[in-house]
From TrEMBL:
Keywords, comma-separated and alphabetical: DNA-binding, Transcription, Transcription regulation
Domain of life from the UniProt record: Bacteria
Domain HTH gntR-type: 8-74
Pfam family, one: GntR
InterPro entries linked to this entry: Bact_HTH_transcr_reg, Tscrpt_reg_HTH_GntR, WH-like_DNA-bd_sf, WH_DNA-bd_sf
Listed name of the protein: GntR family transcriptional regulator
Length: 74
């Protein structure tokens, strides 16, 4: 489970961790990210928090989301 700093917004920290994983190749281009429930379990957050993190990554052009299928690294 990823440890989050209680003084910072959880979704921002999730974005930082996922972005780092994309940069270091843990999640290479074209790969599917873990699903919402898996992210919630890993980061110990609510679904709304995980969705906000994914939305930010999507808005920044790092991932794409296909409804009912998942999120993929660009």
């Amino acid at each position: 489970m990823a440890e989050l700093d209680p003084t910072r917004a959880k979704w921002v920290q999730m974005v930082t961790v996922i972005e780092s994983r994309i940069s270091d190749g843990t999640y290479p281009a074209g790969s599917k990210l873990p699903g919402i429930l898996a992210l919630c379990a890993e980061f110990n957050v609510a679904q709304v928090t995980a969705r906000k993190a994914l939305a930010d990554l999507r808005d920044r052009g790092l991932i794409r989301t296909e409804n009912g299928i998942g999120s993929f690294v660009l």
